[in-house]
Fold this protein.
Amino acid sequence: MKQLCILLIFILSSCGNIKTTYVKGELDQNHYGEKQIFEKFNAGSNDKSVIVLTSGFENDSIRILSGKNIVFKESVTTNESTGLAIFNVISNEEKAEVEILTGNLVKISLKQNDLKKYKLIYISKSVFKKDKYKLEYSNKWKQFR
């Protein structure tokens, strides 16, 4: 019985391939990093959010949907010198979805309620376990390499 419980716990803990975190904090659009990004990508308005794909991507086919519209569909690779793969601005007026089409299809659903609260959505791929992803909602621009 004890072995069965341990096996069940192991199976359940290894099932999720997306770990989601929420970073508390208010958005400061006057901070240099945020201001530069929002101006460059025309993402400063309240109805926009920015999806940032970061580490671990190696020629992965990515599709981003905003509502029912495909807003991005390309293969991406993380730039080793910056630690970034892509930025993509989406409307936060509707739900969105990021699909990783390489290997086993992975769908990362972004709820409209979360998109309204957080300006920046970071998605990274584990370099050790290729089917594990981290989804982070934040209002703070991360420092990269």
Remarks:
- The CA atoms of residues 114 and 137 lie 8 Å apart.
- Strands lie at 18-22, 48-53, 60-66, 69-76, 86-91, 96-100, 106-110, 120-125, 133-138.
